[in-house]
Amino acid sequence: MRKRLEVHTHTENTFCWIKDNYKRIVKSSERLAMPCISEKLFIDALKILINLDKDWVKPGLGNSLYIRPFIFADEPSIN
Predict the structure, then answer these.
(1) Of 60 and 8, more confident
(2) With the C-alpha atoms ordered 34, 28, 12, 61, is the resulting torsion angle positive or negative?
């Protein structure tokens, strides 16, 4: 499962984008009977990634960092 996430350089709502994306991943994980990661782990990991990749995005209106968080299962079946 993968979800789309854009972190915009020109808004104050970056954290809201991350929280909304986390809620979608949890919903999809539950529907697919996959374990959910904690919200803290998800947000902390994205903050680290955003900090590492922020120089790839030019500051200003209309520029964003496009991230595709994903979760995968490696077990052959649901137990």
Answers:
(1) 60
(2) positive
Q: How far is CA 12 from CA 16, 27, 53, 69, in A?
A: 9, 25, 18, 21
Among 9, 5, 7, 22, residue whose Cα is nearest residue 61: 9
57 in Cβ contact with 63 (< 8 Å): yes
pLDDT tens-place string over residues 36-45: 889 999 889 8
Helix (H, G, I), strand (E, B) or coil at 74: coil
User: Which pLDDT score is estimated for 38?
Assistant: 92
Phi, psi values for residue 10, rounded to 5°: -105, 10
